[in-house]
Amino acid sequence: xxxxxxxxxxxxxxxxxxxxxxxxxxxxxxxxxxxxxxxxxxxxxxxxxxxxxxxxxxxxxxxxxxxxxxxxxxxxxxxxxxxxxxxxxxxxxxxxxxxxxxxxxxxxxxxxxxxxxxxxxxxxxxxxxxxxxxxxxxxxxxxxxxxxxxxxxxxxxxxxxxxxxxxxxxxxxxxxxxxxxxxxxxxxxxxxxxxxxxxxxxxxxxxxxxxxxxxxxxxxxxxxxxxxxxxxxxxxxxxxxxxxxxxxxxxxxxxxxxxxxxxxxxxxxxxxxxxxxxxxxxxxxxxxxxxxxxxxxxxxxxxxxxxxxxxxxxxxxxxxxxxxxxxxxxxxxxxxxxxxxxxxxxxxxxxxxxxxxxxxxxxxxxxxxxxxxxxxxxxxxxxxxxxxxxxxxxxxxxxxxxxxxxxxxxxxxxxxxxxxxxxxxxxxxxxxxxxxxxxxxxxxxxxxxxxxxxxxxxxxxxxxxxxxxxxxxxxxxxxxxxxxxxxxxxxxxxxxxxxxxxxxxxxxxxxxxxxxxxxxxxxxxxxxxxxxxxxxxxxxxxxxxxxxxxxxxxxxxxxxxxxxxxxxxxxxxxxxxxxxxxxxxxxxxxxxxxxxxxxxxxxxxxxxxxxxxxxxxxxxxxxxxxxxxxxxxxxxxxxxxxxxxxxxxxxxxxxxxxxxxxxxxxxxxxxxxxxxxxxxxxxxxxxxxxxxxxxxxxxxxxxxxxxxxxxxxxxxxxxxxxxxxxxxxxxxxxxxxxxxxxxxxxxxxxxxxxxxxxxx
Length: 760
Prior knowledge:
This is Phosphoinositide 3-kinase regulatory subunit 6. It contains 22 helices and 20 strands.
């Protein structure tokens, strides 16, 4: 439905928009009287007002620019980034913005370059986008629609998709079905032809302004046939992209071509060439979103492979493309397997000859009619093992070189924000925006899946060449935790399972207001929808928030992924390697109990009756972390009933990118030893025959029992490991980095996108 409006906004509408902007700023300052659990509703309400009448976006731009200049004069940096995102979201959807207003916006963004991070980074990003829109009006809207709706064209061949992964341990089947229905009902179901018409009309209005009669243009387009609309669409896209790619752009030539095409389209309606100058806005459609419950470990890889294959299959393929099969994800490799780089292989090609650890992770389900004897027959694996090509190796190498967001090993300062000039990195054809719904447990699963994906790509690049990954996190608490937090009237209740979200809320107030506030709201919305059974298509709050988050949250905060090597008391049992990103907990079985039922959602609970005989004597060797980056080897022995390693700082004064190890109450720590240890590398074992239990990221599904020792260290980038091993064949010293390994990122971080990164 197209929302029509007059070109001049009444004073009442302008006053209403101004009140909405002021209410958002008051909420940021903490002075708003509304409930803190309704945070984010003010921004959503403002955008809904604009969506109902998109022609008022230019008025909102004018209001926000004034507020930005006022914040600059009063040195109120808290308002700058939220206002910038509100401004840019309005510019993308604006029908027509005068050039003098563009100039004010651009000059303000340039002045932000003199400020520290993250203001200069966000300001530079928005300055580049505003300059592009000023020289080529309509380019931002056009590119966003083409990529998000996967509209095939020859000039702009980029595609995006939003994947929402929810934790089934948090959401019941009814709530999951309600959320899935909410997302599906709000997802765009229009034809590509309607999007083409929207792009044509919006681009004509943005470039021609009052000389464009939008209602007539839309009416004439609807009267045309499909082939004619596609012809007009290709011409508009080509004109926009040619102008956008030219240095400086030729604005007069750009508007001249569009004016000529506009005249051709509406000539039959206005033979005299006169235009009524009527403009109206076209709402920006929500991106394509798919909802999944994260039940399988390799679900992420499967969905990403389907996405790149489904889009590419609709484009020009070779004649034998029908026989193309998506490769199965290879098994995780160990350091010894990395040395097998030669083409010669002793693999028989028969799956039954493989050890269980090397069986493919994804296989076809056996048909119901097949007997066990038939299933036990020898099956030859599809394809052959090949050495990665030069292009594959260069793609992985370039991707590793560009991942500069991680802190160097031993550095304690957490890194945040995009690095380099906008557009300096080669844009890949596909962008997958991964949104996870849950608590710290699903973030841990995301880190594990991301680490496994990087290892697979290091061995044989399949997605690296063409796919860019962007990660987003929307915290969700369990329904019982949400209700208890409401009774206590505090947003921190139940936050022990949302440590990462709490940290992001502290460093980015706009994330706190718009995203973290959803942790209590999403279960309520899902429950209301599942009980009522009514569709909320008219006001899809959750989908609108996700759309806003993935479009404007482009500043990553990097979290170290820690690798843990686990050795068991049973000597015949192989060691296990796993990863965690928020917390590792060690407990002695005699001193704790697990609640593994679905009611308690697997949370760990310690018994109250601690005695002196409870616990075990443990040996701990670690490298002490310090701000001077001088790692000191230390060791100690103590009797304890357990300990916790936390990777997320609990307060603003302790924002260090390292592990903080805390011992349980009653631990017998020697004199002179602090109760907390700060480290990035630590080894723990028992002197007695008492095994202990390890739980990763507070996830009851990732508990290891009968553990004898563990070794924790930051995860290394698999691409760096492969390149270093290749260089070691030609270098006498294996410890030194030579060649390109000097410039490659050693650690593998997990980047979670926010609106600002980290505000000091």
